[in-house]
């Protein structure tokens, strides 16, 4: 035991002695460097700094350790045990210690010079030479404008030809898909599980989403917002008599502003003091009054939601009784002029 | 005799004759100021984006084909979804380190955009965009707007509910472009939104190849122009002039510093990716056109566009039942275009207004140009308020104020606040400058007094009368 302590003390002494000698050596070499001046060097000499070197070496090795840790964690853990945090700390630790090592290296082991130089200037002689070069080179040309025109024409035509295949991307200058809708007179309304919707199942104060039976639900014109109001509350536009049997209304669920789903239904809990029922789009808060044909009562939308006329068949199922009152979804140049097909 | 340093240099020079160029590049001078690092941070975030993006591209499936999820995340098991969404859920839960890389990629995009915006502000408020660096500035603006599109496409690819809502709005904005919007929408989507799946692969090639290649080219041109005209500098003492540049050479001084910054940026991004959850797409669920929720927020750099769409009053240009310009055009196209035009035209407008056509290598401090600084603060506050209103559905929860009231407040504030800030900032700049002048006068007087004293002492007379 005592022998061990003695050994440790001896080692410590040796270490301190060595450290002092190193420092003295560093001082001496610094003096030598300053005495030398620059002496043919490009970068001035700096004093060695063994402690900083030790720090850099230690930091680099710690970074290596973290990198090894990342590999170990990757191999050892399964994703179910959520190693994401540990993996992140390991790789970030490695990168971070490299950054620290480089920072110490830059600060303590590299000579940081502050140099001066002139900002680059313009070269008027060369500018004139280039201009002259261009002018001289065209000395044999007599009809420059015509030649330039011909080159420009060809450039334009070739460019247009090169871009033409891109038109295969889709129909060119065709807005008819924007007017298309899967809703036809007689088509049944189904829910998300393809079950036909019964009129008797449509409760007031609830928003239902319905789709055309047997059609692609993901088409923009497919989803409907279905709600029930009191028939006496309705003030639908002229020509829509009978579109809402028993007060059941169907509107396109896609906002006419920017195409989000009108997913919110504002149903007043105290109708006496609160504003009336409304369909609300959560993206930019366009708000539509279902009682008046989904006219815009707030927000940026410019058109009402298109309404789909409904009817109730002999089995009590809801069916479309015709087509939308207008084009579905966000507007474009000429949207109001077209009929829904 | 072999020389381990000289030999490789000789090898390269023999084959490229590049030694003079290389020597010049190694001794290229970097003036020193913390704010010059903002652009570098953007560059290193881009490096991380490329590295993590390549990894993600190996596992991502750019297809809207329907599939059913059977992976380890129980709440989604048995759900029908697109291949794209399934593959991102699998990157997050099935592949080791997948979630780390995905989140780091997302964080890197947010940090990339943030550092570009801060860098732009630094360039603006110090007048670094002035002659002879207008081209560098314009390329920088192109980088900002291209990156915005790149980020938007990136999170639109995933086909989760949040990204689908964002894409629907993008489709609405595209359709609103006068004359060409409708046909262009049909052309790009191959049909109406959400299309028949063709748009997914088109976004994919744009996000992983076309736009990154464009960004890399723009970054190359930006840096080449910076190097060609050299970096601007602040006047810290009399040695810094319009003609004389003072800085640390690339090698050996600057290189380890810059590398340290690169590793530090990467470390912070991976730490964020590991520890701070971002865009947990498994909670949003797959996108269907008939779903939308309250409180959905895009990535921060798109907030100003959502805000503009929300602030814009209901206003379609309609000529007797014929729609010419639908509403989303104002907030989604006109507003960012106006912002871009104002920023792009600013160097030339300022030149005309101030009559200062000289080339500048020395930077202004913000107070040195009170009008520019005041305009910049006003313009930035205008955009910030529009941006803040993009989160209005969070603000009304936070402040318990109705959306309608907030809308009215913001519609007034976006005009009034910038006007007030303009006046205040200009005043502040002028007073700071006045302070500087007084301070300079005082120092000059002290120096003069000291010189006088010395002269009197030298002449053997008492300086005290």
Give your account of this protein's structure.
- The complex is a heterodimer of chains A (341) and B (465).
- Among the domains of chain A are: 64 residues; 154 residues, Rieske Iron-sulfur Protein.
- Helix content of chain A is 37%, strand content 12%.
- In chain A, the strands form three sheets. Chain A has a four-stranded antiparallel sheet with strand order 2-3-4-5, with no helix packed on it. In chain A, strands 6-7-8-9 form a four-stranded antiparallel sheet, with no helix packed on it.
- In chain A, strand 7 and strand 8 form a beta hairpin.
- In chain A, helix 2 runs antiparallel to helix 3.
- The longest helix of chain A is centred in the first third of the chain and has 35 residues.
- The N and C termini of chain A lie far apart (99 Å).
- Chain B is globular and about 100 Å long.
- Chain B has two domains: 331 residues, Cytochrome Bc1 Complex, Chain C (Up-down Bundle), CATH 1.20.810.10; 101 residues.
- The longest helix of chain B has 56 residues.
- With 465 residues, chain B is mostly helical.
- In chain B, 39% of the residues are buried.
- Chain B is 67% helix and 5% strand.
- Chains A and B meet through helix 3 and strand 1 of A and helix 5, helix 7, helix 8, helix 9 and strand 4 of B.
